[in-house]
Specification:
This protein is 32% helix and 19% strand. It folds into two domains: 38-95; 96-184, no CATH class. Strands 4-5-6-3-7-8 form a six-stranded mixed β-sheet. A two-stranded antiparallel ribbon has the order 1-2. It is α+β, with helices and mostly antiparallel strands and 204 residues long. The chain is rod-shaped, with a radius of gyration of 52 Å. It contains two helices and eight strands, in the order E-E-H-E-H-E-E-E-E-E.
Length: 204
Amino acid sequence: MTEDGAGGRRPPEEEPPRGSMRFQDPSTAKRREPTLAEQRARRQALEEQARQEAAAEQARAQAEQKAATRRKVLIGGGVTVGLVAVVATWYIAGTGDTVNAVCTDGNGTVQPDEYCDDNYATTHGGYYNSSTGFWFIPIGGGQYRQYRYNYGGSGTVGQPVSGGTYTKPSGNTTVKTQSGKTVQRGGFGISGKSSGGDGKSGGS
């Protein structure tokens, strides 16, 4: 036994039994320095975390770039489609409908296209009357035969015209003869032209 401060005796300190835990006072305990293996493991963990964060950031940037590219493509495609639609609509509206013109005489019998032509009429001593829409071509003896266009009808020379009307279409309508000659070109801002080119056409 050991002496205490008063000269008395006190029992010796007992050693803790094997397998028991010793508790340290946090205020007095000294922190243990990590071993080299622990330091290396910690460093590798930090490096791995940094690599994962960098990879995640790179993936996010690539995803944003792809999304931006898709938006540009979609916007560009939408603009292109919209522009094509506008142009197509303008073209269709600008060109208007196409109507077939059939040259007929005063009785409605189909005649050659040349008889409804200013140049042909004038070179054969005839003329065009804009108030009636008839071409007058002399046939001898001071007499004239009348010719005019039927619009939308059909038929062969020498036969009565089938269908159509003698009312001239609007200026937005393209008018072509059976031989394919354009006597009026439709479209926005384009006035009707006759086969003679002076704005005359065979309407009633």
